[in-house]
Design brief:
Layout lengths: L1 H13 L14 E3 L20 E3 L7 H19 L15 H14 L5 H14 L3 H17 L6 H12 L7 H7 L2 H7 L7 H13 L13 H10 L9 H15 L3 H14 L4 H11 L3 H14 L7 H12 L5 H5 L6 H22 L6 H5 L13 H5 L2 H11 L3 H10 L9 H23 L17 H7 L11 H8 L7 H18 L12 H21 L6 H11 L4 H13 L6 H18 L7 H14 L1 H14 L4 H7 L5 H16 L15 H16 L5 H12 L6 H12 L9 H7 L3 H7 L9 H13 L3 H21 L4 H25 L2 H7 L3 H6 L5 H26 L8 H23 L13 H9 L2 H4 L3 H20 L5 H39 L12 H18 L3 H16 L7 H9 L1
Antiparallel strand pairs: 1-2
Helix pairs in contact: 2-4, 3-5, 5-6, 10-11, 10-12, 11-13, 12-13, 12-15, 15-20, 17-29, 20-21, 20-22, 22-24, 22-25, 24-26, 25-26, 25-27, 26-28, 29-31, 30-31, 30-32, 31-33, 31-34, 34-36, 35-40, 36-39, 36-41, 37-38, 40-41, 42-44, 44-45, 45-46, 45-49, 48-49, 50-52
Length: 1084
């Protein structure tokens, strides 16, 4: 079909016409349209000689002048390049002459020119150049193909072709015709008349290409092979080249008629004996046998020969060198190796199943007495390396050899063909990869991470002798680690445990990279940067190799600390994701890891059975050892036991003092995982109270986080996420944290003395306001404060708790929960909110508190927080802002040092007005205008912005606590203990506390006086007289609805405040306020 297309194209170019009409003008040549503008080889335009094609119109008057014009055209074409009629002087193909001959012969095929005329012209053409006979035969071959493809009805051209070819022997030599034309054409034309010619041709062809010749073999005359072996195994001189040896091999093959395949085998055998001369043998094999597939066949027969026996290492080595230098392809030789991939995969699955079965049997509890009497021997911790089984696997052997010669790419292909981790778990292969990783980090480690001592000798092994390999794989900068180091380490996986030195090197390199980046657990690298790539490369390596390898290392505390030095740079969510895979997935990767973790679980269970208060210290040391390698399994079981037996919380917390920082961080993750486990009810069976396991776990969280410095960002974020999902049960965890770490109790029932103490200052509240004395909470309180600040959770938790408090009733009621449970959940939200707000107010400095808390209007309008909660959170902010403004006004006065008490009071009232007036105006849109006809916005703000501290000084409680401290100080002074210095310190501490209480009482007296003067100043504008009849009733109604009832139900202290406030406004004789009516409405 291509010929037919070319034929039609040629006709269109030459413009052959069927009409016999004579042309008006005669021209010998025409310019080819597609040759008018040409470009050079580089695509640049230039002036190139235009190629002219024969004008086919000359064939219409060929007998008169066309013949001469045809020959003239050919001569002109030859003038451009007389050496060749096909190519010009630039080497470009010319189609003018071949096209002219093609058109001439085609005219004869269509009988437009006589055959004799055409033959005479061809005779003249042959005389023009020596290459014309070959060119004519090329055109004849094209016509042969074209005419043989003619369909029915176009057989005349084929007949004409046959007639011309019959007489071509008059023009061209017959030998050339027989050489160039097809056999079928020769028989059709009659040049070859013998009918058996084709049969003889087939026999010769078969004998030439398919019949094997006999060569000398070893069992026959062996002189040639002996000489070859001698030549290949001599001590080559330095100037010996592969070409010299190749000439010797060729001469021996020719002289002794040696079998080339056997020669190839001997060359490979010689290479095996001296693989160190690979620079000589590799080029020799490449020149002797350019086709790598044949070399693979020879190697394949060798591998098959050793299928039942141990394959020699020299064969693996030679094969690896040939693969490394590209002489052969891995896929060509891989098919010859045994066993097949399916068998290896089945063996790997069987080993994993055996390991899991062993672990299952460890957890089986036998109830048969006879079996109990016979104690089975403990199973081995790990299976020993089976060298015999390893040697029987040729794929493992080749992979090891590839790694030992530094061919990582081909070794990786073998690793990827087989089941994950089934190759690298083999000890020789793992150590070979370790050597490569050592090579890749050698320079950068001693250059940028660890300065080598002066007398240190550089590492030397066979890999370092290959300068090209060292230059290729050795990292010069941290960016080069992405080429080979990290991929090799990730493939190695848990098998890296076989070389702890390499683990130390990689971990220290990671630490150096992160340190140079300037990242920490709060600030990551810039997005879409090279630093980000390094950042996640380190995470991948830690996840794939470093942490899983730690499962093999028993009691390696220093390694845990080194790893933590890197992990601490990452935020908690990335660390926890690594811990999750380390704890739940990593130990399933190797059969030996499955066995080790099963045995560790057995030992942990036995250990926890012996825990008591008396043996905390020795068992704590054992717990510390287990936590270095399998912290996840250890903490999982400990947490399960704590959830069942809450009396273990104290002993377990004491036992954990031997943990490393990495283990403590992993414990934080395990606690969150235990809280999120599904399938466990969070309520008791009656559905009215929380489960005991949740209460025990919450209590453990408070105790452990107070006792040890564990990052709690993840736990706090978990509580916040639960609140976002409208789940308030986990507030129990937050309550325990605040109680244990900050000493702020959430007491549902309080004594009168405690309520009175809470009316005082911070020192009095700490001494007498709670059931338990607040001791040693400064450090833990600061840690909780920092954790909240770093994650911006302080205000978030407050707002979420406030929102949850008012939605829990409707949500739980809609879910048809028990009424007692609904009340319990509401009380928990309320208590947690008050406790947390109290903690923020007492721990944060006022500046920090003001900076973080949104404005009162933002809380009321945007966050839809109720008035009681919004003012409860904002109350410390008002007091601070008023005091700040008061100090500014006082200092701005020129006579600041000479101000009288009355003037100072006036300044205070002015500061109060400046701060509170914007708030008063901002709360006006919260209620309708009708409400403000009864009470003023100023009164509403005043009521909600004050607290019991502002109205009442608990003098009796102050006096009682000071009296207690005096007695304690006297007892310390009179103490007859031998430790006099301790008694003196105690006495000094009690005296200091007494002085603080006295100062605090004095300040509160001054503050209460200012507040009373402020109320006296504002009282006349609180209640507006609307009408004589209903004014007092409506005023009391609005007061009860907007002020008294919401605050009375907030806390016990707020209820006390409401009573005190009503008493205060009564004593102030506030206009338009009826105290009797107020009491009557409350009681009714």
């Amino acid at each position: 079909m291509r010929r037919l297309k070319k034929l039609s194209k040629s006709h269109s170019v030459t413009g052959t016409q069927e009409s016999d009409a004579a042309p008006t003008t005669t021209t010998a040549t025409t310019t080819a349209p597609d040759a008018a503008t040409l470009t050079d080889a580089n695509g640049n335009g230039g002036s190139v000689n235009k190629e002219t094609l024969l004008n086919t119109d000359i064939f219409k008057h060929f007998d008169k002048s066309g013949r001469n014009e045809f020959l003239k055209y050919l001569k002109q074409q030859l003038q451009d390049s007389p050496e060749s009629p096909v190519f010009d002087r630039h080497g470009t193909f010319k189609r003018g002459i071949s096209n002219a001959i093609y058109e001439l012969l085609w005219q004869a095929l269509r009988y437009k020119l006589k055959k004799d005329v055409v033959l005479h012209v061809l005779t003249d053409v042959v005389a023009l150049h020596k290459e014309f006979p070959s060119l004519i035969l090329d055109v004849v071959n094209i016509l042969d193909s074209e005419t043989s493809l003619m369909t029915e009805g176009l057989q005349e051209e084929r007949h004409g072709f046959v007639q011309i070819v019959k007489d071509l022997d008059k023009v061209l030599p017959e030998s050339l015709l027989k050489e160039r034309l097809e056999i079928d054409t020769l028989q059709e034309v009659g040049i070859v008349k013998n009918k058996s010619f084709y049969t003889k041709f087939i026999k010769v062809k078969t004998k030439l290409y398919y019949k094997q010749r006999r060569f000398n073999l070893f069992r026959e005359e062996s002189e040639g092979f002996a000489k070859l072996i001698t030549e290949m195994n001599q001590d080559f001189e330095e100037h010996t080249t592969p070409d010299t040896i190749m000439d010797i091999i060729k001469s021996l093959i020719g002289c002794f008629n040696l079998d080339p395949n056997r020669v190839l085998d001997i060359i490979i055998e010689s290479f095996e004996t001296r693989p160190d001369r690979w620079k000589l043998f590799i080029p020799l094999l490449r020149s002797y046998m350019p086709t790598g597939a044949i070399i693979c066949e020879v190697l394949g027969y060798k591998f098959c020969h050793f299928k039942a026996a141990r394959t020699p290492r020299s064969l693996y080595h030679v094969c690896a060198l040939l693969l490394k230098h590209g002489v052969i392809e891995l896929n060509d030789v891989y098919v010859w190796l045994t066993p097949n991939d399916g068998s290896i995969r089945a063996q790997w699955e069987e080993e994993l199943a055996d390991a899991r079965e062993m672990v299952r049997k460890l957890h089986v509890i036998s109830t048969n007495k006879k079996e109990d009497d016979k104690e089975p021997p403990p199973p081995p911790t790990t299976k020993k390396f089976d060298e015999e089984k390893y040697n029987a696997n040729q794929k493992f052997g080749l992979c090891e050899a590839l790694l030992k010669v530094g061919d990582w790419d081909n070794a990786l292909k073998i690793i990827q063909k087989l089941p994950d981790q089934s190759v690298v778990v083999q000890d020789p292969i793992a150590r070979a990869i370790v050597e490569l990783v050592h090579l890749s980090v050698e320079q950068i480690y001693y250059k940028k991470v660890f300065k080598a001592p002066a007398g240190r000798k550089p590492s030397r092994n066979r890999l370092y002798d290959d300068a090209a390999l060292v230059a290729k794989m050795q990292a010069q900068d941290f960016g080069d680690l992405r080429k080979y180091t990290w991929p090799m380490a990730n493939v190695l996986g848990p098998a890296m445990h076989c070389d702890t030195v390499l683990m130390y090197k990689l971990v220290r390199i990671m630490g150096k990279i992160l340190l140079d980046m300037g990242v920490d657990n709060l600030n990551g690298p810039p997005p879409n940067s090279e630093q980000e790539q390094h950042y996640y490369d380190i995470i991948t390596c830690l996840d794939a190799s470093i942490l899983p390898s730690l499962l093999y290392l028993d009691s390696n505390c220093s390694m845990s600390e080194e790893i933590w030095a890197v992990l601490k740079f990452f935020p908690y969510h990335l660390r926890y994701s690594m811990y999750a895979r380390w704890k739940n997935d990593s130990y399933q990767m190797h059969p030996n890891l499955i066995r080790r973790c099963g045995l560790a679980q057995r030992d942990i269970k036995a250990l926890m059975k012996r825990v008591s208060k008396e043996n905390v210290k020795p068992l704590g040391r054992l717990v510390g050892k287990y936590s270095h390698c399998t912290p996840g399994l250890l903490f999982d079981y400990i947490l399960v036991q704590i959830q069942i037996y809450d009396n273990l919380i104290g002993p377990v917390c004491d036992m954990l003092k031997y943990l490393t920082a990495l283990s403590f961080d992993c414990l934080g993750y395990c606690i969150i995982e235990s809280l999120t486990m599904t399938g466990r009810g969070r309520f008791k069976d009656d559905g009215t109270s929380l489960s005991l396991w949740l209460q025990s776990l919450a209590s453990f969280c408070g105790t452990i986080y107070k006792k040890y410095s564990i990052e709690m960002s993840g736990l706090l974020q978990y509580v916040a996420n639960q609140l976002k999902s409208q789940k308030s049960l986990d507030l129990l965890v937050l309550r325990e944290l605040v109680h244990k770490m900050a000493g702020v109790e959430s007491c549902e029932e309080m004594t009168n003395d405690q309520l009175q103490a809470l009316c005082g200052g911070e020192q009095l509240r700490g001494e007498a306001g709670y059931f338990s004395q607040v001791r040693n909470t400064k450090k833990s309180s600061n840690r909780l404060k920092e954790a909240l600040a770093n994650n911006d959770l302080a205000v978030t938790l407050c707002l979420l708790m406030a929102q949850q408090k008012h939605c829990v009733i409707y949500r739980e009621t809609a879910a048809h929960s028990h009424l007692k449970l609904v009340g319990s959940l509401y009380d928990q939200c309320q208590d947690a909110l008050v406790q947390f707000g109290t903690f923020l107010g007492s721990t944060y400095s006022v500046d920090e508190y003001v900076e973080r808390l949104p404005s009162i209007i933002t809380m009321l309008r945007e966050y839809h927080i109720n008035t009681d909660v919004a003012f409860f959170l904002a109350r410390p902010m008002f007091t601070h802002q008023i005091n700040q403004k008061y100090d500014q006004l006082r200092k701005a006065d020129p006579n600041a040092k000479k101000l009288t008490t009355a003037q100072k009071l006036q300044k205070y009232l002015e500061a109060t007005q400046l701060i509170m007036n914007p708030i008063v105006e901002s709360v006006r849109p919260l209620h309708s205008a009708k409400v403000w006809e009864d009470i003023s916005p100023q009164f509403l703000v005043t009521f909600w912005s004050l607290s019991m501290y502002d109205l009442h000084v608990p003098n009796e409680i102050y006096q009682r606590e000071i009296g207690k401290l005096k007695q304690l100080a006297q007892q310390a002074a009179d103490g007859k203990d031998s430790n006099q210095s301790k008694n003196k310190k105690e006495q000094e501490r009690y005296i200091a506390l007494m002085e603080k209480l006295n100062d605090e009482r004095k300040k509160q007296h001054e503050h209460v006086d200012k507040i009373l003067q402020r109320l006296q100043e504002q009282k006349d504008g609180w209640f507006l007289l609307r009408s004589a009849k209903s004014a007092k009733n409506d005023t009391i109604t609005q007061f009860l609805q907007l002020c008294l009832f919401p605050r009375c139900t907030f806390t016990a202290l707020d209820a006390l405040y409401c009573a005190k406030f009503v008493q205060t406004i009564h004593n102030l004789k506030t206009a338009n306020f009826s105290t009797l009516l107020c009491y009557d409405r409350k009681s009714s």
